[in-house]
Specification:
The protein has 670 residues and is an alpha+beta fold. It folds into 5 domains: 62 residues, Helix hairpin bin (Helix Hairpins); 229 residues, DNA ligase/mRNA capping enzyme (D-amino Acid Aminotransferase, Chain A, domain 1, 2-Layer Sandwich); 77 residues, OB fold (Dihydrolipoamide Acetyltransferase, E2P) (Beta Barrel), CATH 2.40.50.140; 159 residues, DNA polymerase, domain 1; 70 residues, Rossmann fold (3-Layer(aba) Sandwich), CATH 3.40.50.10190. Helix content is 37%, strand content 21%. A hairpin with a 7-residue loop joins strand 17 and strand 18. Helix 1 packs antiparallel against helix 2, helix 12 crosses helix 13 and helix 16 packs across helix 17. The longest helix is centred in the first third of the chain and has 23 residues. The structure holds 2-(butylsulfanyl)adenosine. The site of 2-(butylsulfanyl)adenosine (IVH) has 15 residues, from strand 3, strand 8 and strand 13. 2-(butylsulfanyl)adenosine binds next to strand 3, strand 8 and strand 13.
Length: 670
């Protein structure tokens, strides 16, 4: 073959390998997708006309190839073990102490890793080339899934860097990215096929596809967490080995840490648990490994698990229970939500007895009947959901359909279903006791008027005792009226009257937010206040005019417009102003300073005042993008407490770092 062509093939292959490495391992894309595709196509063309090509490890081989009729068996040279579990902090401490007792060094280090929720695989590189990949199987023999594993995007077909061992078996987890999983399931459902139950099943199903082109189309990822057999020298520390693997271009989780001490080990468990919803992949716990490899060898194994490692799993996020009934709740804006009343079940670390069913469409999608056995899911702080029905457990004698009400279950007003919306609404407005309660709770809440001492329970009591029917009437309450309520003494009554007084001094943004206009959250209220500066100007604004406000689209503009066209709303606003609610005049900030459009934020660590998701929403409302990982393109990193590798990376890249207080100031200014 022409030497020139050969040289081009080598050069294009290296270029693509670099792009892949920058994108998948360093998490720093260096070229646009179109450039990658261009080089890929160029290489493909040259390989087509060159005898002996494509080579087995060419970057073009990542798209999959021939379909197999079955998988061959592979015997692992070293058995693939599993892990013991601990279920509570004390058991983790005991594990650490047992390891410490076998060492002559004080304060031994542990390598701490997320427990990735996928399936284990062994991948062998010979002279830097990927030659074989196998599933764990029974630990002794697995299946040869080389063709499928080769299509995993973040996995190199060829190692890079210095001192690559002539033989290197890496072990790690094949998983499916959460976002990719959702997309895949949507695609399967749209095509009338059965969706996967969770990302782990989807990863397993994809890895066991005989046609590697199908596997290639699935959003699989791989992270290394161990070395199997190898020739040559490797570091004497688990953590350093992981770093070495990364140095050879292999993907490793960026959450891997080396720590000493019980507290640091427990802190990590806590911190990663909080971060879990934001990770791009599923994890189901933390793996603690003795860091020193010589000490690992001293500790050895019991049965099929090492004594030098243990897994501390998060509480199960799914549990099976029964839907005993379905009730209908009326929200602040009249939306009627079906709520499943469950036989209480322990899931995600708490006992759950209610789960939202969202709306009719969701119930239809799930195919639920009252009396069904269902899987309930509670992930992080997210409200419990019914994930799926166990159809084969259905007993037709004991189940009955869910019937939606024709009238509001609270005030018996007419119910309407708006075209194109899945939700039904009570038309009662503030006539409806439920909406009244919710409106007042919202009015008093922390981000609204922040009325100290006026919690949800008290609002319910006040409405039930007919002491108030609208937010404005809060300010007419007397100490005598309040003291007449159950469990309310004169002292608390006086305190509440006092905080009601204090709450009258507020901001226009908070006031607008407190009115509970549909789809007007904190950020939109801020934008409105800054744009119009007075309540009078907001009141008279037209739908078109409102759309000039940053981030206000037609739908939100209409909600605002119609809110101020309803007499009882105007009445409430006027009564509130008459009651003495006021705010300092607003200094206008230029629109251009307002918008965070084009900026890319990354949120890391834990926060005291705002939750991660609130921060995310607030930034997005201002036009910013919120990304999951730090790259050169990141504009600002919002770093809370115990921020880890993302913060370090931001510092290395010289990216602006903002703490919670500065962020709060910024948001308030806006
Ligand atoms: S180490 C000898 N590290 O958990 C130790 N396993 O329950 C072998 N897993 O089969 C495993 N993340 O599939 C290790 N960081 C991690 C892991 C991990 C997930 C899986 C792995 C293993 C299973 C054992």
């Amino acid at each position: 073959m022409n030497n020139e062509i050969q040289a081009s093939i080598t050069q294009l292959s290296e270029q693509l390998e670099n792009y892949n490495y920058q994108y998948y391992v360093l998490d720093e894309p260096s070229v646009p997708d179109a450039e990658y595709d261009r080089v890929f196509q160029q290489l493909l063309k040259l390989e087509e006309v060159s005898p002996g090509h494509p080579l087995a490890n060419s970057p073009t081989q990542k798209v999959g190839g021939l379909a197999l009729s079955k998988f061959e068996q592979v015997t692992h040279q070293k058995p693939m073990l599993s892990l013991d579990n601990v279920f509570e902090a004390q058991a983790l401490k005991d594990f650490m102490k047992r390891a410490q007792d076998k060492s002559s060094t004080a304060n031994i280090a542990f390598c701490i890793e997320p427990k990735l929720d996928g399936l284990a695989a062994s991948i062998i590189y010979e002279n830097g080339l990927l030659i074989q990949a196998a599933t764990r199987g029974d630990g002794q023999t697995g299946e040869n899934v080389t063709e499928n594993v080769k299509t995993i995007k973040n996995l190199p077909l060829k190692l890079r860097g210095e001192n690559i061992p002539p033989l290197l078996e890496v072990r790690g987890e094949v998983f499916m990215l959460k976002a990719g999983f959702d997309k895949l399931n949507k695609k399967l459902s749209d095509a009338g096929e059965k969706p996967f139950v969770n990302p782990r099943n989807a990863a397993a199903g994809s890895l066991r596809q005989l046609d590697s082109k199908v596997a290639a189309s699935r959003p699989l990822g791989f992270y290394c967490y161990a070395v199997g057999v190898f020739e040559g020298e490797l570091a004497n520390s688990q953590f350093e080995r992981i770093e070495q693997l990364k140095g050879w271009g292999l993907p490793v989780s960026e959450e891997v840490k080396q720590v000493t001490g019980e507290q640091a080990c427990l802190d990590y468990y806590q911190a990663i648990g909080e971060k879990r919803p934001d990770l791009a992949y599923e994890i189901d716990g933390v793996v603690y490994k003795v860091d020193n490899i010589a000490l690992q060898e001293t500790l050895g194994f019991v049965a099929r698990a090492p004594r030098w490692a243990t897994a501390f799993k998060f509480p199960a996020e799914e549990a099976v229970t029964i839907i005993e009934n379905v009730e209908f709740q009326v929200g602040r804006t009249g939306a009627i939500t079906p709520v499943a009343k469950l036989k209480p079940v322990f899931v995600g670390g708490v006992t759950v007895s209610n789960a939202t069913l969202h709306n009719k469409d969701e119930i239809k999608r799930l195919g639920i009947l009252i009396g069904d056995e269902v899987v309930v899911r509670r992930a992080g702080d997210v409200i419990p959901q019914v994930a799926r029905v166990l159809l084969d457990k259905r007993d037709l004698q004991k189940t009955q359909p869910i019937v939606f009400p024709d009238v509001c279950p609270v005030c018996e007003s007419r119910v309407e279903r708006i075209e194109g919306e899945a939700t039904i609404r009570c038309t009662g407005g503030l006539y409806c006791g439920a909406q009244r309660k919710e409106a007042i709770k919202h009015f008093a809440s922390r981000k609204a008027l922040d009325i100290d001492g006026l919690g949800n329970k008290l609002v319910e009591l006040l409405v039930e005792h007919n002491l108030i029917a609208s937010p404005a009437q809060l300010f007419d309450l007397t100490t005598e009226q309040l003291s007449s309520l159950p469990r309310m003494g004169a002292v608390s009554a006086k305190k509440l009257i006092n905080s009601l007084q204090i709450s009258k001094k507020t901001t226009l943004a908070r006031f607008l937010y407190s009115l509970g206009i549909r789809e007007v959250g904190e950020a939109t209220a801020n934008n409105l206040a800054n744009h119009y500066q007075t309540i009078e100007a907001v009141k008279v604004a037209s739908v078109e005019n409102l759309q000039a406000v940053s981030d206000v689209g037609e739908i939100v503009a209409k909600h605002i417009y119609y809110f101020f066209r309803q007499e009882h709303n105007i009445e409430v606003v006027n009564q509130l102003l008459e009651a003495g609610i006021h705010w300092p005049e607003i200094k206008k900030v230029a629109e251009s300073e307002l918008s965070l459009t084009g900026q890319i934020f990354v949120i890391t660590g834990s926060f005291n005042v705002m939750s991660r998701s609130d921060i995310k929403t607030a930034l997005q409302d201002l036009g910013a993008k919120v990304a999951g990982s730090v790259s050169k393109k990141t504009t600002t990193v919002i770093a809370g407490e115990a921020a880890g590798s993302k913060l370090t990376k931001a510092q290395e890249l010289g990216i602006e770092i903002m703490d919670e207080e500065t962020l709060l100031n910024l948001l308030n200014k806006i």
